[in-house]
Amino acid sequence: MVNLSFGIVALGANLPLSGQELWAGLRRTLDILHSEPGISISASSRFWRSPAIPLGSGPDYVNAAATFTTPLPPEDVLAAFHRIEADFGRDRSTGRWSSRVLDLDLIALDDRIVPDAATLRHWIDLPFDSQTRVAPDRLLLPHPRMQDRGFVLAPLAEIAPDWRHPLTGLTVQAMLDALPPSALDGMTPMDPSEMAGPA
């Protein structure tokens, strides 16, 4: 019997692709992810409008979160995400916090801590000014910034509020509730009327 893992992916974009609305590009991405061998989307959140971080660094984003099941190891899942980003025209050489047509972040896979608790804790505790200058040279799970990001937690709370962080023990809902109000400034779920018509 194949062992399936429960995964979480955060999606975002703030540059349109081929003239499409941002939300339409993310909806298309969810379809592509679901058709990817070894990845099956099980739930997806609403689309949310979110300001770019740092504030003023680019156009507003549209964000979403989805859960999926997979038999693949984390490295293969991440490679699939990077391939899909590249197919959309994502240029990873423009910097970590630059505008992009698609961003797929592997947030978690089951209760795995990768590579180990001490390394993950180091990156979780990294001061904000250091976050803008240094990036990990390896996959970290869960994503070390997930507990800080309203644009990840608010959508994720719609579909997996009870998922528990394997290092801190906090649920998604608890992490969302612990955020300062400023972490959600400017974030609004999109109204379905904004997405009427063809994607």
| Main pleated-sheet profile | 6 strands, antiparallel
Helix content: 25-40%
By DSSP (H or I, 4+ residues per run), the number of helices equals 6
Overall pLDDT, averaged? 90
**In total, how many beta strands?**
6
- Approximately what portion of the residues adopt beta-strand conformation? 15-25%
Indicate the overall shape. Answer: globular
Structural class computed from helices and strand pairing: alpha+beta
Q: What is the rounded distance between the termini?
A: 38 Å
Radius of gyration using CA atoms only? 16 Å
Order of helices and strands: EHEEEHEHHHHE
- Low-confidence parts lasting 5 or more residues at pLDDT below 50? none
Main features:
199 residues; alpha+beta; six-stranded antiparallel beta sheet; 6 helices; 29% helix; 18% strand
Topology:
Layout: E1 5-13, H1 22-35, E2 40-44, E3 48-50, E4 61-70, H2 74-87, E5 103-109, H3 117-124, H4 128-131, H5 150-159, H6 172-178, E6 188-189
Antiparallel strand pairs: 1-4, 1-5, 2-4, 3-4, 3-6
Helix pairs in contact: 5-6
Describe this protein's structure.
- With 199 residues, the protein is an alpha+beta fold.
- The protein is built from six helices and six strands.
- Strands 1, 2, 3, 4, 5 and 6 form a six-stranded antiparallel sheet that branches.
- It starts with a strand and ends in a 10-residue tail after the last strand.
- The mean pLDDT is 90.
